[in-house]
Design brief:
The chain is of the alpha+beta class. The protein contains three helices and nine strands. The protein is 21% helix and 18% strand. The protein has a five-stranded antiparallel β-sheet with strand order 5-8-7-6-9. The protein has a two-stranded antiparallel sheet with strand order 1-2. Strands 3-4 form a two-stranded antiparallel sheet. The protein is rod-shaped. The termini are far apart. The C terminus is likely disordered.
Length: 277
């Protein structure tokens, strides 16, 4: 190792090393820095939960060095997706900022197929909406006081079993996904409306009750989706008999359903799944 103590040898090694850095490593580094790649960039404000359209984004070329691995490179990848966070002009779009489905807020409105529709009814006092305890997935009965001005309080056969799909506060946000509550406001927002999944025939009756300002909701069932479907399935059968479609009408007398439908019973369901008020 005595040759390392020779100043001439050390000088030559330093020169060789510097040439290697200048003519080999530096060009490779510069090439990687200058390499261009296409990415998707935001051109207008996109709110959280908003669906992304073509006019909101553009494809631009930028240096590929030090870009996040999950940055999106093609516009087609983001179109029709939903923003998971607020995006501003100039932001890169990352895969973890997109969702294939809408945010939890109002997500149920994106699953309507045309067979049924969503309609909201007002909760004008604390008792009408089960003291603020209703939630999505509940099965309720709609009680109509002085139904059709006849002086009787009844549960219309069409509204014996109705599914709740949303409970909304006066802020416009659903009470189970409240986003309008400040950190210093711990008080729960009380529901102002309840959104129900109904057929067109049910919607007409609910609209009349809403106009009269007289309806009351009672909880029939709270539990797993499969058991709740038994109630709505029974309700659909009743509606098909009360309001047959032209294809169903063959001139024969339609069998009328009983005024009090028997609730479906699931003997395998846990006891706590059957709720009532």
């Amino acid at each position: 190792m005595n040759f390392l103590k020779n100043r001439t040898v050390l000088g030559v090694l330093c020169i060789v090393l510097s040439l290697l850095i200048c003519f080999a490593l530096t060009p490779l580094f510069n090439q990687s820095v200058s390499q261009k790649t296409s990415i998707v960039r935001v051109v207008k404000d996109i709110a959280s939960g908003e669906q992304i359209t073509k006019d909101m984004v553009q494809t631009v070329e930028v240096g590929g060095y030090n870009l996040p691995e999950n940055v999106i490179h093609q516009t087609e990848t983001v179109l029709g997706k939903y923003a998971e966070a607020d995006l501003s002009p100039g932001d890169y779009i990352l895969t973890d900022k997109l969702s294939d489905v809408p945010a939890a807020e109002n997500a149920y409105l994106y699953h309507l197929t045309g067979d049924k529709q969503a309609i909201s009814v007002s909760i004008k006092n604390f008792a009408q909406g089960l003291s603020g305890k209703l939630m999505s997935g509940d099965i309720v009965s709609v009680i109509a006081p002085d139904y059709k001005k006849q002086g009787a309080t009844v549960i219309p056969p069409e509204l014996t079993y109705v599914e709740v799909i949303g409970v909304t506060a006066s802020t416009g946000f659903d009470t189970d996904t409240e986003e309008d509550t400040s950190k210093n406001d711990k008080e729960k927002k009380l529901p102002a409306t309840v959104t129900l999944l109904v057929s067109p025939e049910q919607a007409k009756i609910l609209a009349e009750l809403e106009a009269d300002g007289k309806l009351h909701l009672s909880l029939i069932f709270r539990g797993i989706k499969e058991n709740a479907a038994k109630f709505t399935g029974l309700q659909d059968e009743v509606i098909s008999k009360l309001h047959p479609t032209p294809a169903q009408s063959d001139g024969t007398q339609t069998e009328q359903p009983p005024s009090n439908m028997e609730a479906p019973v699931d003997t395998n369901a846990p006891a706590e799944e059957n709720g009532g008020e």
